[in-house]
Structures are given as C-alpha cells and as structure tokens.
Amino acid sequence: KNEVEQSPQNLTAQEGEFITINCSYSVGISALHWLQQHPGGGIVSLFMLSSGKKKHGRLIATINIQEKHSSLHITASHPRDSAVYICAGFSGSRLTFGEGTQLTVNP
Amino acid sequence: NAGVTQTPKFRVLKTGQSMTLLCAQDMNHEYMYWYRQDPGMGLRLIHYSVGEGTTAKGEVPDGYNVSRLKKQNFLLGLESAAPSQTSVYFCASSLQGPNTEAFFGQGTRLTVV
Lengths: 107, 113
Hints:
The complex is a heterodimer of chains A (about 110) and B (about 110). With about 110 residues, chain A is mainly β. Chain A has strands at about 5, 10-15, 20-25, 30-35, 45-50, 50-55, 60-65, 70-75, 85-90, 95, 100-105. Chain B is mostly beta strands and about 110 residues long. In chain B, strands 2, 4, 5, 6, 9, 10 and 11 form a seven-stranded mixed beta sheet that branches. The mean pLDDT of chain B is about 95. The interface between A and B is medium-sized, with 25 and 22 residues.
C-alpha cells in the first residue's frame, strides 16, 4: 500500500464544473506538494503547504495535517486544466509521491 | 532563465549499453534529484544531492550512479542498461530540501531493448 493515496485515479468533467482531488497519507508528514503533469510530460509545482489553505487563480489547495488529508480544488474548470495531478508528502528527508489523478475536462 | 534542462529527451538503448543523462539548473539550487516514473506508480527517488560534490541514495538506486562535480549539473549514469530500466526519468532541483518548491525538467524517455 502506497504511503500516499490519491482519489479518484481518473476524473472526467464538463467545462465549468467544480473539481476536487483528494490526497491521503498513512504516515506523518510536515508538508505536502501538489504538482501538475502536462500531457507532454512536463511537471510543474502548483502548491506547497503545511497548514490551512492556499489559492492561486482558480486553484485552491487545503491541508489538514492531523487528519492526514489534503484536497486540490479547481473552480470553473477548463479543458486546459486536463492533466495529471500529483500530490507528494514530505516526511523526514524525502518526498513520497501519489500515483496521480488523470483529469480530463471536456468542452 | 532556462530552469531545469534535461538531455537527451528520448533514447533507445540495447541491453548492456551505457549512457549518461545530464541535468542542468541555472537557479543556484543546492538540492538536485533524479526520479523515475513508471505506469501505475508514483515518482520514485533514485539518487539525490544536497550540494556540490555530494550524492546520496534514494529509494531505487541499484543499477544507477550519479555525480555532482559542479553545483549546476547532476549526472545520472547507467553502466549496463537493463529492460527494467525502461522508464521516464525526471530531474528536479530545489533551493533547499524537499520542503521547498521543486522545479522539474521535461523528462527523458528511455527504452532499453
């Protein structure tokens, strides 16, 4: 069992829908990253957070360290949001990655 | 500002051949990492470096070697490639440790036949 579990694995939405991707971890972590992997393969960092909530444009990330859970929300989704979203927990000296959530937003 | 650049982007190797993947960053980051990404699995750490002249093993180091002779470059070597090393390889760097923002290269798709 992976230390970092993401759900759902695949998600299809219609343009404009509100989207939530969840990340749960079985070990204690002190911070969590959300990454976006584009269809071409490149990976970019979206957020790094250790408490509360962060917002960047239409993206919102929340974390509850005690409950070992984080969520990534996308408001007013758009086809260009189609990508794989990856969470990674920081524990000790390393990052442990989830398998990713494949998001497809249809026009 | 190029960020993190990996070369090559694609490569096909025969079993037993050797090759080196180059990662270069121009952000003066201390930490650099090599990951591999395989279907159905999260990114896994191969080796990492916390500064020039230092390297350390990650989760899956067997079959790989690394060097960090210059702060801006982190090389990943495969001495004798095996089909199990077919994967997509990502280099990343961060200013400090994994609790700081990471910047990734575009990836190298390696196929070992």
